């Protein structure tokens, strides 16, 4: 890494693991993320409405999950890495009171385009909340 913690393509290796990121799942994170992304679906901010849907509590929306995926990869690559081609799949819900731990590794490298593909998962106590990959163009 160079100044400002920017990952350089030449410093990345196939199979490199990213530092784990542990995210406490709180009501504030879930509701704040939903409101910030203009997702007013009641299941994301109203516990009673979520209960009526058969959910034990409010649950995280996909846009908040997407933002957390970007945070995880962005902390690894630094401020000049360009995230592209983000592909995620949701699994089990994220509920307040749990934690989600992100893990990931570099699964592809393309020297011509200076692109590293990071495969990742975010897991909570019930299993994988999110799995996917992100291509990152590095300086």
SSE arrangement:
Layout: E1 21-24, H1 27-36, H2 47-52, H3 62-77, E2 82-90, E3 99-110, E4 115-124, E5 127-137
Brief overview:
The protein is an alpha+beta fold and 139 residues long.
Description:
23% of the residues lie in helices and 33% in strands. It is of the alpha+beta class and 139 residues long. The protein has one domain (3-137): Thiol Ester Dehydrase, Chain A, CATH 3.10.129.10. The protein has a five-stranded antiparallel β-sheet, with helices on one face. Strand 3 (99-110) and strand 4 form a beta hairpin. The radius of gyration is 16 Å and the shape is elongated. The chain starts with 20 loop residues before the first strand and ends with a strand. The model has no long low-confidence stretch (mean pLDDT 96).
Characteristic key phrases:
5 strands, 5-stranded antiparallel sheet, Thiol Ester Dehydrase, Chain A, elongated, 139 residues, 33% strand, alpha+beta
The coarse overall form would be elongated
Q: Quote the average pLDDT.
A: 96
Spatial strand sequence of the major β-sheet: 1-3-4-5-2
In percent, how much strand structure appears in the residues?
Answer: 25-35%
Give a short account of the largest sheet: 5 strands, antiparallel
Order of helices and strands: EHHHEEEE
Query: What would CATH call the class?
Result: Alpha Beta
- Find the CATH topology: Thiol Ester Dehydrase, Chain A
Task: Indicate the structural class.
Answer: alpha+beta
Q: What is the radius of gyration computed over CA atoms, rounded to a whole number of angstroms?
A: 16 Å
Helix content: 10-25%
H/I helix tally: 3
């Amino acid at each position: 890494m160079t100044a400002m913690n920017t990952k350089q393509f030449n410093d990345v290796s196939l199979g490199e693991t990213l530092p784990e990121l542990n995210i406490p799942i709180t009501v504030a994170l879930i509701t704040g993320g939903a409101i910030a992304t203009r997702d007013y679906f009641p299941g994301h901010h109203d516990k009673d409405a979520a209960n009526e849907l058969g959910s034990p509590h409010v649950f995280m929306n996909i846009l908040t999950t997407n933002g957390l995926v970007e945070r995880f990869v962005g902390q690894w690559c630094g401020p000049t890495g360009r995230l592209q081609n983000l592909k995620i799949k949701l699994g089990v819900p994220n509920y307040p009171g749990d934690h989600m731990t992100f893990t990931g590794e570099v699964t592809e490298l393309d020297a011509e385009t200076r692109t590293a593909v990071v495969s990742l998962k975010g897991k909570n106590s019930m299993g994988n909340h999110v799995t996917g990959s992100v291509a990152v163009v590095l300086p």
